[in-house]
Amino acid sequence: MKRLLWLDIAKGLAILWVVYFHLFRTAVPNRPSPMEPDFVANVAGEHGWDGLAASVETCGRLVWYGISQCGYHAVGLFIIVSGWSLASASARREAKAPIAWGTWYRSRFMRLYPMYWLAHLVYLVSPFVERLEPVDYRFLISLTGLRMIDISSNFFYLNAAWWYFAMLIQLYLIFPILYLTMRKIGLAWFVVVAFAVGFFTRYLLLEVWKAPGAWILGGNALSRLPEFALGMVLGMLHLRDPERVERFLLSGLGLALGLALYFVAPYFYRGAAYVFADLWTGTCCFLSVVGIAGSLEKWAFAAKWLGLVGMFSYGIYLVHQPYVIWVGLRIQDEPAWAFFLIAAVVLVVLSAWGILLEKFANAMLDRVIGGKK
Length: 373
What we know:
The chain has 373 residues and is mainly α.
């Protein structure tokens, strides 16, 4: 599949935002979130509006907390991009020959699991990682990726970020069904059906069964089907008319829409409206970050390095969190300027580390596959 530089840049921005978010939440805990209804009042209560200096500081804190606390929305971007990439790649392959789904499963899961297992090994042997839980029988369950087994105990075990893998393998398992359904009933009806299934699942989990939040987050992948299906449809639309889709996403229109829609997002964090929250914030994040990526694509230096980070965002995601928790717990008393300096170093170091590990995992896998051939 032809790589889209601006999409890699968007993934690079998104993974850096996720890493920064986890560092911020650890190093600067208990700060207001813009998804809370009284966000402005809470920040103003901390710093006040009396005097020019206080007003400037309060405004700065609003922006800082707002950007920092929304980093988890980038997960929605990755779900959308996953649907986009799988659908468009499958359509390109299908145009050449019928898809052998058995081979498809084999290639996809062989790319997913080695890096996931390597992340477990790295966790065991690395210094400077925060070990919040003992290594016990749950480690073996984690290796399978089936972290939804005894979800309250396993879903966030050892490295909380690994919950994403449990959701991802579920979406991969059902992707052929989704793809064939989309091809059969068309894009418009597919969106309607996928949204209905996803929102109904979330409603049952949230309102009827009162299930733990982990099931809605991704323990049941159908709860994230709306974002994944949206990505699939966007990927197909881009395949049909790339110029038109990119003109909307990269010209500034998508960025403006994403930022505008963000002002409505807090209302989806109240009661039953949370059924729609993840799709809304994921879409806002996707539009905003992709819009920024479209501008950065014109800056050769940023495009090169952010694109590289985006290409290996999977490896960075799998290894980063225990490191940033370790760092974050040790800089909680540092001033803001020191936090930003340390955050910049952490982002660079962990990006390089994640890229190196994923390259190593891919090289070893290619050697094994090549040897078998």
